[in-house]
Amino acid sequence: MKMSLSRIAGGTVLALTMATSALAAAHAPKVNLEPFVTGVNSPLAMVQPEGDSRMFVAEQWGRVMIVNDGELMGTPFLDIRSLIIDRHPDFDERGLLGLAFDPDFAENGKFYVSYSAPLDFQGDLGQMLWYDHSNVVSQFTVSADDPNVADRKSEKILSSTPWPQFNHNGHWIGFGPDGMLYVSMGDGGYANDWGIGHNVTEGNGQDMSTPLGKILRIDPETGAAPADNPFVDNEDADPRIYALGLRNPWRCAFDKGGDNALICADVQQNSFEEVNVIEAGANYGWRRMEADKCFNYLEPDNHPDSCDTAGLTMPVMSYNNCTAQPDGCDGISVTGGYVYRGEHAAWDGAYIYGDWSKQFASMDGQIMIGMPDGNGGYERKLASVANMDGATPYVLAFAQDNAGEVYALTSITTGPVGSQDTIYKVAPAQ
């Protein structure tokens, strides 16, 4: 198990880090990435509705495509490219960000998307001319005439949140076992939870009056806060808030088994990455903390030795970010995954996730496995991809089918351009 540099003192730091890294590599699980479908554009979500044989893929540029019997259908299920703000082709964090299907989709035809829209200058956003865009969560219904085509005119907007910067959008969406819709919200962008659109004194992650830097729990019909939300009686808080203290929760998922835990990967600043088990009312520390280390937004790479951690919930897994902690690092932007519930018994209960890449300039995506430690936590293992020649593509997201198998959604470019990306099934290497 790799040791954290912050917990090792003296001149043995480098030797211990190298030794433990070598030990971890020797015991790294081996996986194969088996091609499932190709020809998609920056896939950020793939969802299989209950009882449905089809898989629905959300492409960042604004289309939802259907995979049926392993084949990508030519006609989009939904095309909302006209609703999405223009994106930078080389790199962008905006677009069609999330996709979820009503648990009763087979009967009511309702599904949900989250996307980045231009600011609405006719509405109340007009006062925020310096903001970048709005992040929207909407309900749609399937067409009455064709089950493979959505009714484009059926959109019902549940929330529209003005966003200060182009980045840190979050906006994974998913249904919980309670039938409520959960939404991950980044802190508003830029860096260090600071600048235009950020709370000056404590950052958006700790500011209960804003939805930024939070996990929201909303009614899927109205967008309002359910009466049993943890802060619904706090007059100073947005009642939709379910959990707080997050920077950019990039991909979350409910466990299909066990206690149906909600697990989110939260992209941190320059030094560390983290994974959290999300609980009602919990505070995950940003910007007081970066992962399990104290954080000073004015000196983000120099972590104070001590800070006020009262009331904070620490991550269940963390690792070094190669930007500022290159020794023993495993990536620069964590990508959340799923708890495995498929046919490989040895993986049952393991959390399969990854990192976008160990470097920006070239593909070096990472696959990781968090094995349950028997105490409610996980032992993190960096997997080796046995069947890849060269580096693994950028890892954008993960998905899970109704059988509990897990998929890696990847791209060969840093921006949402072209339709040349591939979704792989994650399987043990023989």
Structure description:
With 430 residues, this protein is mainly β. The chain is 4% helix and 37% strand. The chain has a domain at 38-322: TolB, C-terminal domain (Neuraminidase, 6 Propeller), CATH 2.120.10. The chain has two helices and 28 strands. The chain has a five-stranded mixed beta sheet with strand order 25-1-28-27-26, with no helix packed on it. Strands 2, 3, 4, 5 and 6 form a five-stranded antiparallel beta sheet that branches. A four-stranded antiparallel beta sheet has the order 7-8-9-10, with no helix packed on it. The longest helix is centred in the N-terminal third of the chain and has 14 residues, at 13-26. Mean pLDDT is 92; it is low at 1-26.
How would you concisely characterize the structure shown here?
The chain is mainly beta and 430 residues long. The protein has two helices and 28 strands.
Secondary-structure class:
mainly beta
- Taking pLDDT < 50 over at least 5 consecutive residues as the criterion, the unreliable ranges are 1-26
Listing every helix as H and every strand as E from the N terminus to the C terminus, the arrangement reads HEEEEEEEHEEEEEEEEEEEEEEEEEEEEE
Distance between the termini: 24 Å
Q: Which homologous superfamily in CATH is the superfamily of the domain at 38-322?
A: TolB, C-terminal domain
Q: Using only CA atoms, what is the Rg?
A: 21 Å
The main β sheet shows up as: 5 strands, mixed
Placed side by side, the strands forming the largest sheet appear as: 25-1-28-27-26
Fold-level CATH name of the domain at 38-322: Neuraminidase
Cα shape? globular
Helix content: under 10%
Q: Give a count of the beta strands, DSSP E runs of length 2 or more.
A: 28
CATH-level-2 architecture of the domain at 38-322: 6 Propeller
Residue fraction in strands: 35-45%
